[in-house]
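Look over this entry.
=====
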Amino acid sequence: MPNVIALLGLFLFWLSVLWMPLSITRGIYNRGPVQVWAIASIFAFGMVFMGYTRAMMQGTAAEAFAWSVSWAMPLGLALFARSNPDAVYRGFDKYVGIIGLLLFIPVVGALPGVLRQAAEALW
């Protein structure tokens, strides 16, 4: 079970990284609710990244489990910003999702090493 959660965390991290350019673009070019949700997604990504890397270096298994599942938060906020009809590049989300699914298998071997290096640099 822990391996499944770790793999889920890596998958959600990968999707969150791929959605970040859309969130940044929506945070810059949109106004109103779309901008608020996009900026919330960006800050949530930063918060989860810091918590996840800290849990990798100093945390318990329960903390790592919680932060792995928390990667759904920035992704959910990015998708929520897309739900507004005024969101810029609204049609790109499905392509980002397809690209994320297709490229996850080739990059899954490198993601733990990248996250470990980031965790060592930060903590």
